[in-house]
Amino acid sequence: MFGNQTLYEFADAFTGHPVPASVLYQGVDTSKLSWAEQLWVDWYKYWGNPVIATGVMSFLLHEIVYFGRSIPWIIIDSMPSMRKYKLQPNKIPTAAEQWRCTRLVLLSHFTVELPQIWSFHPICEYFGMATHQVPFPSWTKMAWQILLFFVFEDTFHYWVHRAMHFGPLYKHIHKIHHEFSAPFGLAAEYAHPLEVLILGLGTIGGPFLLCAYTKDLHIITVYIWIVLRLFQAVDAHSGYDFPISMHNWLPIWAGADHHDYHHMAFLGCYSTSFRWWDHFMGTDVSYKKCRAREAEARRKAALETAKTK
Ligand SMILES: [Zn+2]
Ligand SMILES: [Zn+2]
């Protein structure tokens, strides 16, 4: 298909960005690298083209983490003993619903995201982000940068998601995501491709902004952030609230309890990770009343049970 060219050579010619490993790691003493950093170097050497190496890694990371994190929730949904932790226990997703969800998510990944494989690395480089470089930044630097990304994404998502509930935007774009009034893990990215693109800006916009200002960001930090963000999104749609769930010991964390209500009621609780925007903007009043009523009903039921014993 490509004549005498190998696939790698074709990719190099296509991206116009061939950088041999000998140039990429010239002067780097790889004997001093950690195990993870060595793997990183091997990956970039294997592809021999940083554009393809970064693009493929980004795409695979998303697919593996998104679907990998959804599997435990599919298993939990099949276990009747877990129903007591389900926020809407009468609404368990059927296999057909899960399959419908998987199909749309894959369609969106392959149409919206796959083409970005070719552009992600150049955009990162444009903003001055370190990609193939080693060593990695320190854990402390990664931690505060990721915390900033969480805060930025949560703020972006609150306002843009709230705007998505405005008449025409809801009707033409966001309505698809609300097809399931009782969400489940796989439904996290069940949305109009345009919504995936727009709300995705909240996830990737923070790193690009920080990088543009500081020129001090490594793509490994962005990958760790994306993994955590995917965990947050899938778990928030799981529909389960366990006693050990994060919001029970970190009250500012939104979690499934918060987002499940958004799907159930269609309004309020617009944030992703934290509860402060909904609290300060008063968009969680009905949620708080609903949970208070449920707690009161549980208290009365427990009293009745105690009396009959
Ligand atoms: Zn919504
Ligand atoms: Zn949702």
UniProtKB/TrEMBL annotation:
Subcellular location(s) of the protein: Membrane
UniProt domain Fatty acid hydroxylase: residue ranges: 147-283
Source species, domain of life: Eukaryota
GO biological process: lipid biosynthetic process
GO molecular function annotations of the record: C-4 methylsterol oxidase activity; iron ion binding
GO cellular component: membrane
EC number: 1.14.18.9
Keywords: Membrane, Monooxygenase, Oxidoreductase, Transmembrane, Transmembrane helix
Protein name, per record: 4alpha-methylsterol monooxygenase
Organism: Malassezia cuniculi
Gene label: ERG25
